[in-house]
Design a protein that fits this description.
Rossmann fold, 12 helices, elongated, 13 strands, alpha/beta, binds 6-O-phosphono-beta-D-fructofuranose, 5-stranded mixed β-sheet, 4-stranded parallel β-sheet, 17% strand
């Protein structure tokens, strides 16, 4: 974390990692615009760390000012992202040496890795590797994840927007269900992301307040799924309110600790691919209670919904990118710009550096104080935390075709200087 003098020359490498968000490109804009203001050339790695290994680098200097500015409102990952885990230095030294060779060949002195807790681990490993291999490289982890599960930071860029999408969708779909419940659908189930932590599911609770307001039931991965209690609450809600909205996290577990919705595949980090808990719950409701249902799995729609982004989130995403460049140029190493909340109402926040080893490979779950006693709802404390994060709209420019004007970068490749590498 110690500051050293800034190397006299060099380029900055920025890479996106893991699941993308509605605002990760706002972070890219923060990085590139701040680096340009300091006269630093920015390369981006194509498809995250894989681009660095394969020497597939992009010269962002070929993009216009307007194109970089348009990243602020364009979802997806403009340079490509990946799920790729660097293995241990002891067993895969060649992979690390290759990374250093690529960084050295292109005179890259600052590496900014934009991702979640796995990516913080990768950035940390590269910073350690640089030291042990005698190459002067400063690594900064830049926070991003819709799951909101990074340690230390108060919230994660990407989360506020998915939270807003989830709260708004819960409200809108509930108005639909309520209008036809007398003769048609009685139960609506929305499945949301958030592997092991229920932050996105919790955000649906902002749609309404009070026992009869939707969502009537939220299912969190922090609580073991209790089938009998769930069915009893669905039945009681339908009998009292006339209909019932359920929001379920994709990561809910049964008493045996198994995901209700595991698809059977795993990614490079060993994470199970999830998705499909809503139809499991819907079938249960139909079989045991006989109610007509609909269910929805917004999946990638929720994390790409830039049209429903939170202004707070978009601003924070930009700010962490900008701060990451400041930290890098100040000579900091193995740190992440994190969001510190200084006040709930009015909501105030600032950015501070935090050591990557306090963040890498850790997962922040919902605190017990944020869940109601029956485990099916959120408390006032959770509302106080969540509400500011969905505040404000971040409007998009629309074209004559009625579609948002998203930017497609040229992504001009930097000439390779090294032989190909098999990994
Ligand atoms: O990045 C987080 C996340 O969006 C999770 O909530 C979700 O389970 C996962 O990514 C999906 O990952 P992938 O897009 O690699 O299948």
């Amino acid at each position: 974390m110690k500051s050293k003098a800034r190397p006299a020359t060099g380029r900055l490498l920025y890479a996106q990692s893991g699941g993308v968000t509605a605002v990760i490109n706002a972070t890219a804009a923060g990085v590139i615009q701040n680096a340009r203001a300091h006269g630093i050339k920015v390369y981006a790695a194509r498809n995250g760390i894989l681009g660095a290994l394969r020497e597939e680098l992009i010269d962002t200097g070929k993009e216009t000012t307007a194109a970089i500015d348009a990243l602020r409102h364009t979802p997806g990952g403009a340079f490509g992202s990946c799920r790729y885990k660097l293995k241990s230095v002891d067993t895969h030294r060649a992979e690390y040496e290759r990374l250093i060779d690529v960084l050295r060949a292109h005179d890259i002195r600052w590496f900014l890795y934009n991702g979640g807790n796995d990516s913080a681990d990768t950035a940390l490993k590269i910073s350690q590797l640089g030291k042990s291999m005698g190459y002067d490289i400063r690594c900064i982890g830049v926070p991003k994840t819709v799951d909101n599960d990074l340690a230390v930071t108060d919230c994660c860029p990407g989360f506020g927007s998915v939270a807003k999408y989830t709260a708004v969708s819960t409200l809108e779909a509930s108005l639909d269900v309520a209008s036809m419940a007398d003769t048609s659908t009685k139960v609506f189930i929305l499945e949301v992301m958030g592997r092991h932590a229920g932050w996105i599911a919790a955000a649906s609770g902002l749609a309404g307040e009070g026992a009869d307001a939707p969502p009537h039931i939220i299912l969190f991965p922090e609580r073991v799924f209790d089938e009998a209690a769930f069915l009893a609450k669905v039945k009681a809600t339908v009998e009292r309110v006339g209909w019932c909205t359920v929001v379920a996290s994709e990561g809910i577990l049964n008493a045996e600790g198994q995901f209700l919705a595991e698809a059977g595949t795993r990614d490079a980090f060993g994470h199970a691919q999830l998705g499909g808990v809503a139809p499991v719950l819907a079938a249960l409701v139909k079989e045991k209670l006989g109610y007509k249902y609909h269910w929805a799995l917004p999946d990638y729609l929720q994390r790409s919904a830039r049209h429903m982004a939170s202004k707070t989130d978009a601003e924070q995403a930009y700010a962490v990118g900008k701060a990451a460049v400041d930290y890098a140029l100040a000579g900091m190493n193995a740190v992440m710009p994190v969001i510190v909340r200084t006040s709930d109402a009015p909501y105030r926040w600032k950015i501070e550096p935090a050591a990557l080893d306090k963040i890498a490979n850790r997962e922040k779950k919902m605190p017990t104080s944020f869940l109601t006693r029956d485990g099916f709802g959120i408390t006032a404390a959770a509302r106080r935390y969540l509400s500011p994060l969905i505040q404000g709209e971040a409007p998009l420019p629309y074209g004559r075709d009625g579609l948002p004007k998203y930017v497609q970068l040229k992504n001009v490749a930097v000439s390779k200087r090294l032989p190909a590498f098999e990994h």
